[in-house]
Amino acid sequence: MGPAVSAKSSAAIKYTALRLAVFAGCFALVAALVHFGILPKGLGDSNFVWVVLLAVVLSAPISFVLLRSQRDAMSEQIVTKVERTKARYEANRTQED
């Protein structure tokens, strides 16, 4: 059961790491655009919050498109685990009757 669990974890970890990498790239791009004055700096001291919000808004659709296969693989592994858990629960329930 050990290798199967680590394979399941690796799909989620891989997707999360790639998602964070896409966000980091968007953050760096937005920060550079704000620094060079191509994008506005926000209001007062809100520069960091502005950059983070823009990076989140940009990274979400990019991740949705670019990470589709990783998201599907993670989803399949989650569905498989849920189905096994349901089957185990049902088997335990019928044994008690």
Automatic annotation (TrEMBL):
UniProt-listed Pfam families: DUF4229 (PF14012)
Alphabetical UniProt keywords: Membrane, Transmembrane, Transmembrane helix
InterPro entries named in the record: DUF4229 (IPR025323)
Listed transmembrane segments: 17-36, 48-67
Entry protein name: Membrane protein
Species: Streptomyces inusitatus
Lineage: Bacteria, Bacillati, Actinomycetota, Actinomycetes, Kitasatosporales
